[in-house]
Amino acid sequence: MAYGGKTKTMNLEIKDLTVRLYPKKNAGRHINVVDSVDLYVNGGEIAAVVGESGSGKSFLGLSIMRLNPPDVSEVVSGSVKIKCPGEKEELDIMRLNPKNLPSVRGRLVSIVFQDPNTSLNPVIKIGEQITEAIFAHKKIGKPEAKEIAISYLNRMNIDGKARFNAYPHELSGGMRQRVMIAMAMVLNPCFLIADEPTTALDVTTSLQVLSLIEKIKLESNLGIIFITHDLSIAKNISDKIYVFYAGQVMECGKTEEIMDNPLHPYTVSLINSVPSLPADYMPKQKLFTIPGYLTKDDFTEGKCRFYSRCFKRDNNCLKNIPLNEISRGMFARCIKV
Ligand SMILES: Nc1ncnc2c1ncn2[C@@H]1O[C@H](COP(=O)(O)OP(=O)(O)O)[C@@H](O)[C@H]1O
Ligand code: SF4
Ligand SMILES: [Mg+2]
After folding, report:
1. Prediction pTM value
2. For the chain, what is the domain count?
3. Whose CA is nearest to atom 1 of ligand 1?
4. 328: exposed, middle or buried (Cβ count in 10 Å: 0-12, 13-18, 19+)
5. Could you report the per-residue pLDDT of 215-253, keeping only the tens digit for each?
6. Considering the domain boundaries, does residue 293 fall inside one?
7. pLDDT tens digits for 125-160?
8. Which residues have C-beta atoms less than 6 Å from ligand 2?
9. What is the CATH number of the domain that holds 72?
10. N or C: which end of the chain has fewer CB within 10 A?
């Protein structure tokens, strides 16, 4: 269920995506770690996926790229359609022949992970790592690839010429993450999935990286799916928010509307748990404390996934709850809103 205005020329649309995770060595039951997810993002727009650790956000990001581990997981249903300017037709990534996936990854949609230390190869110079990414898609000479790599490093506020031959350990954490973004952008994709790109960074460096992400969004009309556990970051950077819990979208809508008037009990609790939000962004409802933790049991079918921690729960919540449009453009998965 998408909401708002979708542009005709450039969008990424996820419909009814369900991805199943099988337990290793048949220990326990399978879970739908991504369950009936609908999400879309236009070019030049940032959609934040916000939720606590273990809710399946990274799995969603990987699934969009079909990078989820095939030995333990399976796409059960759904589509991820991507439309980019200059492409003849819309592609459904879920239905692409595996041999065609490399031509989509990086070129149409790219991903940046949380930890640049594990994503970069420590023994290869950063310039070489970026040019490798270019050579994987383009038949061009070394000097031309080097020029492109340098220009993308420069765009990330890194002196490309001076740092081209640097090894990852010679750069700060913030610089390494900016190298990762340069690498993700070097083929000029129309969509970027940023999976907690600032979580491993200190506050000041994190702010620099966030402002760079906004800059490249504007310069390249990039559509971004920004994954974060931090609602205050989502509030500052996104145009719309998808509140994610135990594999499902619990609530979605325009960022301002979600922050001003959260509907779902989980969203209310998330907002209440962010002390740094200015007073005018606090919800009007009474403050709530939600006990407990997200566990694998919360992914169980046949009940609201937030049931075990919800102060409003009753027996009517012991069934699968659909995501309903509550008001124009605001969706919530709760029978009490
Ligand atoms: N490769 C995997 N094998 C087994 N379980 C996994 C794997 N990847 C993720 N999970 C499980 O799926 C759930 C969601 O994980 P993840 O997507 O990493 O959450 P988030 O990014 O929101 O913190 C967690 O319970 C996690 O343990
Ligand atoms: S459906 Fe029930 S358990 Fe789920 S969030 Fe709403 S009130 Fe709480
Ligand atoms: Mg994650």
Report:
1. 0.93
2. 1
3. 69
4. exposed
5. 999 999 999 999 999 999 999 999 999 999 999 999 999
6. yes
7. 999 999 999 998 889 999 999 999 999 999 999 999
8. 265, 304, 306-307, 310, 312-313, 317, 321, 334-336
9. 3.40.50.300
10. N
